[in-house]
Amino acid sequence: MLKVIINGCNGKMGQVLGYQISQNNELEIIAGIDKNPVKANADFPVYNNIFDCNERADVIIDFSKPEALKVLIDYATKTNTPLVIATTGLSSQDMDNIKAASSKVPIFQSANMSVGINVLARLAQEAAKIMGTSSDIEIVEKHHSLKVDAPSGTAYLIANKINESLIEPKEYTFGRHSKTEKRSENEIGIHSIRGGTIVGDHTVIFAGSDEVIEISHIAASKNIFALGAIRAAKFIAQKEPGYYNMDDLMKNYI
Fold first, then answer.
1. Which of 41, 50, 90, 175 has its CA 20 to 30 A from that of 73?
2. What percentage of the chain carries pLDDT values higher than 90?
3. Cα separation of 145 and 192, whole Å?
4. Which are the contacts of 157, defined by CB distance < 8 A and separation ≥ 6?
5. Distance from C-alpha of 15 to C-alpha of 138, rounded to nearest angstrom
6. Which residue among the candidates 35, 39, 65, 147 is catalytic per the annotation?
7. Dihedral through CA 243, CA 246, CA 252, CA 254, nearest 10?
8. Cβ atoms of residues 114 and 217 within 8 Å
9. Taking 80 as the threshold, does the pLDDT of residue 40 lie above it?
C-alpha cells in the first residue's frame, strides 16, 4: 500500500483528495501538513511544519500555495521522498526550483491534474499543426470567483502546448481592453472569466476563414483533479530522480 503525505490537507482540494484516497485500497494517508492543522477533522496526524512530521511516506501530494513550495522541496530532497506538485499559480522561479530539485528526487508537476484537460491540450496541439497558420487561436478559461490567479495555469499549459507544435511560436495577448489596433496574426488570445462556483471550463478556438473549430473541457467537480493526482502518485512512486508531467503519464495510454 502506498503511504501518502498530503501537503495542504485541510484546504478544499486537500479534503477532496483525502476523501478519494479513503475510497482507494491502494493508498493510505499517514500524515497531513497544513498551516491550520486543526481546521478539519482527520483520522491521521496533521502538522503545521512538514519537518515536524515523523512519519515516512512513499510519496507526497501537494495541493497548497506557491509560498509553501520551498520548504516542501527541502523536505522532499532531504528525505528522498517522491513529490507530486498539484499547486497552481507557480512562477517561473518556482518552476526553475522544481526542475533543479528533480535532479535529486522524482518530481511530478502539472498545472492541471485532470487527465481530460491534458487530452484537450494534446488535441489542441495536433489541431494547431494543421490549422495554426490559417486560423486565429483564442483560449477562454472560466473559474469560480475565489480563484486568485489569472489567466489560469491551465490556460498557459494549453497555450504552451500549441506553441510547441508551431514552427513560429505566437505571442500571448491577455484580453483586449483599451486596444485600438486590429488583431495580429502572430498571437494567441487568452481570456479569463471569474464568477460563481465554476470549477473550471477551458475552450480553445481555431477561427479560420468561414469555419470555426472549438475544443472544450468542462470540470463538473474537483474530484477529477484529485483522481489525477492519485494516478500521478502511483506513477512516480518508483521512478528515478527527474522531472515528470502529464505527458509522461499519458504515454502509458498511447
1. 41
2. 85
3. 11
4. 110, 111, 112, 117, 121
5. 34
6. 147
7. -130
8. yes
9. no
Triad 102, 108, 110: Cα angle to 5°: 125
217 in catalytic set: no
CA-nearest of 183, 184, 187 to 159 is 187
The CA distance from 65 to 72, in Å, is 11
Biggest alpha carbon–alpha carbon distance for the chain = 63
Active site residue 70: no
Structure confidence by residue, pLDDT tens digits, 181-240: 899 899 999 999 999 999 999 999 999 999 999 999 999 999 999 999 999 999 999 899
Percent of the chain scoring above 70 in pLDDT:
98
d(CA 142, CA 230): 25
At which residue does the C-alpha cell 492543522 appear?
37
Give the CA distances from residue 30 to residues 2, 17, 122, 138, 198, in Å, rounded to whole numbers and listed in that order.
Answer: 10, 13, 35, 44, 32
CA distance linking residue 70 with residue 4, whole number of Å = 19
Q: How far apart are the C-alpha atoms of 226 and 16, rounded to whole Å?
A: 7
pTM for the whole structure: 0.87
CA dist 66 and 86 (Å) reads 10
Q: Helices 12-22 and 223-236, interaxial angle, to 10°?
A: 60
Options 143, 161, 170, 217, the catalytic residue: 143
Distances (CA, A) of 81 to 104, 169, 218: 10, 37, 33
Quick one: pLDDT band at residue 39, thresholds 50, 70, 90? Answer: low
